[in-house]
Amino acid sequence: MPVEIIMPKVDMDMSTGTIAQWHVSQGDRVEKGLPLFDIETDKATMEIEAPTTGVLGSVSPTGVALPIGAAVAWLYEEGEVVGEPPHPVANASEIPASEEDVSSTPLALENITIPLVLSAADTQSASIKPRATPRARNAAREKGLDLAFVSGTGPRGRVQYRDIEALSVDWSASKSPQSFDQEVGDLVVSRTEGSGTPFVFFHGFANDATSWFALERRLVGRTIIKVDLPCHGKSPNRSYADFPSLVAELRTVFDKHVDQPVHLVAHSLGGALALAVADTRPRKIESLTLIAPAGLGPQINADALNGILRASQPQSLKPWLELLVADSSMITDAYSRAAMVARESANLRAAQARLASVLFPDGTQSFSLKSALERLDMPTKIIWGKADQIIPWQHALQAPGRVALHLLDGVGHMPHVEAPEELGLVLGALK
Amino acid sequence: MTSEANISVQELSYAEAIRDALDIALERDSRVILMGEDIGVYGGAFQVTGDLVHKYGAERVIDTPISELGGAGVAVGAALTGLRPIFEFQFSDFAALALEQIVNQAAKLRYMLGGEVSVPLVMRFPSGSGTGAAAQHSQSLEAWLAHVPGLKVLQPSTPEDAKGMLLAALEDPDPVMIYEHKILYKMKGQVPSGYYTTEIGKAAVRREGKDLTIVATSIMVHKALEAANSLAEAGIDVEVVDLRTIRPIDRETVLDSVRKTGKLLCVYEAVKTLGIGAEISALVAESDAFDYLEAPIVRLGGAECPIPYNPDLEKAAVPQVPDILEACRALHEGRV
Predict the structure, then answer these.
(1) Min distance A160 CA to chain B CA atoms (Å)
(2) Res B201 pLDDT > 90
(3) pLDDT digits over A31-64, tens only?
(4) Quick one: which H or E segment has residue B14?
């Protein structure tokens, strides 16, 4: 099987790259680690090494801007016929028409850390596209929205026209009320059937289960159970006296929906809740993965929390969302609108504000799970972006030595959104 | 309805409306002749021609021998000489015997002779199931002829259209094939008196609605309307388009409706595969109306089998009102 060579992302704000020079000619053999080609960006010229030993074929031309992630050549093994590549190499016509097009497409920014060689599993999952009706696609095109960030209400999650229409709501009329209506009912849990040990996902504060979208695409074929936390997503809004009463609710949901050992994956506030649940249900948790978890130190960015809670329109939400990620250009206007739609309900925003006042009084994490982390004996990982502006990544350093740390450069508080490929590799390795 | 519209209206059955049209045609144009098996003294297999032979004589209401191929050949020849023959098949199924004359002669002669001649021939095809006449007397084969350039193919669904389209067909210089559903012959409706024509190639919106579009033909228009009326009580607002002509198809009426509702159900009695529903679906998929679709297109057509003799199985082999209701609900509730 020939190995695909792709245009790598060597610069944070680069959307295309130009090959300045090939160091190896078509049909010639190259040793792993030797220079293969030079890329020219606005700022510099970089040398790219051969990821493996092989014979070079299907080479893209120099001097032409090619999209990030596009195949630029293939390396064939000894004895393999150098012929047609498994899929076409890049040509200039595949490039988006303008820089604006690229920046208005949040999905393109998932490419933050593309590995030089894509595995078969990666290319397979990347081919899964959002389902949408023709009318919804047409409307999304007109509004410059990326369908991947619109949650569909049609059959099998298909995006309908009404889902796009909802993103055009006039926010200026809505105001965040001080009190909110208490709601009853069970938390909303969704389950995707697949193989292997199931994954259970707990999302972070002021987020919801849709935030796992990019990561899910890297875990195709696996059983995934996603929970909408209370006062989040589609779950009911109600008040909790303190952190333990919130944990008690999550434990009940966990017991109800989990009947076999699972991989528990949790982000931020969800990470703290996961630690607390794991502390009391260790036999039902095969492994624990904490992404930028809360509960390991007192610091938290209170300004960002308050800003997100206060925002009642996309324009005021956007600057605070930008703090969630390392590369703020990822938060486009369309992304902010989609995020605001998820926070459209004034009741939900009021309920979250109340929850924040209980969990994070005076901008402090009022609960600590450090001792729980020390007690746990299931395989545990902590994944954290070193550009996190919400909770300091250095909290990870308090973990005992048997906890694996994955610290990501150039990634903020949302590794599962900013670097889903990396997390897909880490989680995909769990059986 | 166009030209010389008459204000007075009478209630006639579909068969009576056709007889009325034949009577008017024979009366006003001496070139018009009727041809077919048992259309004279017997009055036609479905009593459509009735007693016209007594009024116009056996020279203009001609019983042809039991040979569809021979009769159709004579009709093509008569049209070439300048007459206006109206040829009746006993059952549309038997037209299979006359395909050479219809497909290779009537449809082709104007083209092959450089426009020097035309074949102003009208043929009538009693078709469809529901009479307990089984596999060889119950088919809906209109799509066969609709596949042939040079022919026009009509499927009037009401007595008013049956009369107006037959009279319009006689004004057409080229061959026009009219499929009449046998079950519709007894259906009554308001029919204008006197001479008028109904435009060929123009669909009719029988019911306006905003939630979904049903494009139906022939008897299925009535089943669709029945379903639509019952769905209206459930708050589902269905638009019903009666195609009326399947060659040439009224593209714009279909596309306008789909652009409005975003959901399309095609209902026709003929076997589902490669039927008129496929053509309508493709028409939408190829047009800008595609961008208005909010759900996959759904087709309801006949079962992939010969029409059974057993009355229950015969019913089950073609779409019925409950099938249309369920298809509409599934579309409306986002289950497809």
Answers:
(1) 6
(2) yes
(3) 888 889 888 766 677 788 888 888 888 888 888 7
(4) helix B14-28
Q: Could you tell me if B26 and B19 are in contact, meaning their C-beta atoms sit under 8 angstroms apart?
A: no
Contact flag A135-B335 (C-beta cutoff 8 Å): no
Sorting pLDDT into bands at 50, 70 and 90, what band is A141? confident
Question: What chain B residue is nearest to A157 in terms of C-alpha separation?
Answer: B334
Cβ distance A373 to A380 under 8 Å? yes
- The arrangement of strands across the sheet holding A65-67 comes to A45-49, A35-40, A16-22, A65-67
B245: nearest Cα among B325, B134, B319, B168: B168
Give pLDDT, residue B178.
Answer: 98
- Mutate which of B210, B211, B293, B331 to test chain A, going by most A C-beta atoms within 10 A? B293
Residues of chain B numbered 70-99 and touching chain A (CB < 8 Å): none
- Catalytic amino acids of B? 68, 137
CB proximity list for A328: less than 8 A, separation 6 or greater: A322
In this complex, do A135 and B291 lie within 8 Å of one another by their Cβ atoms?
yes
Q: Is A144 left (phi over 0), alpha (psi -120 to 50) or beta?
A: left
Q: What is the pLDDT of residues B218-266, one digit of tens each?
A: 999 999 999 999 999 999 999 999 999 999 999 999 999 999 999 999 9
pLDDT tens, B78-133? 999 999 999 999 999 999 999 999 999 999 999 999 999 999 999 999 999 999 99
User: What is the ipTM for the molecules in this complex?
Assistant: 0.76
CB contact under 8 A, B262 and A161: yes
Q: Does B295 touch chain A (CB under 8 A)?
A: yes
Question: Phi and psi for B245 in degrees, rounded to 5?
Answer: -120, 125
Structure tokens at B110: 């104007």
